[in-house]
Design a protein that fits this description.
This protein has helices at 14-17, 32-40, 57-70, 83-91, 105-115, 142-152, 162-166, 168-172, 184-190, 200-215, 229-241, 252-271, and strands spanning 22-27, 45-49, 73-77, 96-99, 154-159, 179-182, 219-223, 246-251. It is α/β, with parallel strands linked by helices. The protein has one domain: Phosphoenolpyruvate-binding domains (TIM Barrel). Strand 2, helix 3 (57-70) and strand 3 form a beta-alpha-beta unit. Helix 2 runs parallel beside helix 3 (57-70) and helix 4 runs parallel beside helix 5. The radius of gyration is 19 Å and the shape is globular. Keywords: Lyase, Metal-binding.
Length: 273
């Protein structure tokens, strides 16, 4: 096994990285080049979204490689809570998984168990294979690698349903859960406020989730939806005051689309003068 100094660092793990705040972006375009741009921008992680993105695992692994080359942490949002999807993504080199639509402690526990190798008294059931990309293709010291992986691979669950909010105390009690990610868009849709992630009732529910998570020292990930830099900063500051330290600053599709619209609008206005 390579020595510890050559191992990748999970920059979303605040205890290991020593960072106060980390930021990333959701990537839904099937492009290693987009990952490289995210890395060169100074972001800490990419949230590679296989639930809403149109790509398979083979393409995702190429995106993991691009992330590694740029020194940005690749996380993988699986399409659903599925053992095979999670384990294959981790074997392919994802440094963590984001599991959508987690509404119960049973689901949260399953997510953790799928990500952990059996070591000691934990409940890990991740399949073992020394010749995977994650294990550098043939790890000599498997025990050390398994322990390193358990300590460095992160497990985030998305709280984006009313049931998830109602069961948050039980979900937060699951040992080995690294963070919960807030899902205001899906939650607003279920609550009848379609397309209104900033609705006061939606924000109020999520604020209660954050308060409970921080009491238990579980980290929280906030996804920011604002369109302008000033609005984005205000949204960030709101969650910072609540104790949130992990942020996704939007999605590549949204950033790209807004930039194109702004440029198209500017050119059309210029032609009318």
């Amino acid at each position: 096994m390579p020595n510890q100094s050559s191992q990748r660092i999970n920059r979303t793990n605040l205890k290991i990285s020593g960072a106060d705040v980390v930021s990333g972006i959701t990537v839904q375009l099937a492009s290693p080049e987009v990952i490289e741009m995210c890395g060169s921008s100074g972001l800490d992680f990419v949230w590679i979204d296989a639930e809403h993105g149109s790509f398979d695992l083979e393409r995702a692994v190429e995106m993991f490689r691009a992330a590694d080359a740029q020194g940005i942490t690749p996380l993988f949002r699986v399409p659903a809570l599925d053992a095979a999807s999670i384990m294959r993504a981790l074997d392919g080199g994802a440094m963590g998984v984001i599991v959508p639509n987690v509404s119960t402690a049973v689901q949260a526990q399953a997510a953790v168990d799928y990500c952990r190798y059996k070591v000691g008294s934990n409940r890990g059931i991740r399949g073992s294979c020394p010749s995977t990309r994650a294990a550098r293709y043939l790890t000599d010291d498997w025990d050390s690698f398994a322990r390193w992986s358990n300590e460095n691979v992160t497990v985030w669950v998305l709280i984006e349903t009313v049931a998830g909010v109602e069961n948050i105390d039980e979900i937060l009690a699951v040992e080995g859960l690294d963070a919960i990610a807030l899902g205001p868009f899906d939650l607003s849709h279920e609550m009848g406020f379609r397309g209104q992630p900033f609705h006061p009732e939606v924000t109020g529910m999520l604020e209660r989730v954050v308060e409970k998570a921080r009491r238990r020292n579980v980290e929280v990930v906030a996804s920011l939806f604002s369109a302008t830099s000033a609005e984005l900063a205000a949204e960030r500051d709101h969650w910072l005051r609540k104790g949130v330290r992990l942020f996704s600053v939007g999605s590549d599709r949204a950033v790209f689309s807004r930039a194109l619209r702004e440029r198209a609008c500017m050119l059309k206005q210029s032609s009318m003068r």
